[in-house]
Amino acid sequence: MNARAETVLIAGAAGAIETIVELPEAAPRGITLVCHPHPLFGGANSNKVTHTLARAALKLGDIALRPNFRGVGDSAGTHADGAGETDDMLTVLAWARQRWGDLPVSLAGFSFGAYVQTRVAQALAEAGHPARRMALVGTAAGYVEGARHYETAAVPATTLIIHGARDETVPLANVLAWAEPLDLPVVVIPGADHFFHRRLPLIRDLLMRAWRD
Question: Domain 5-211 has what CATH class?
Answer without folding.
Answer: alpha beta
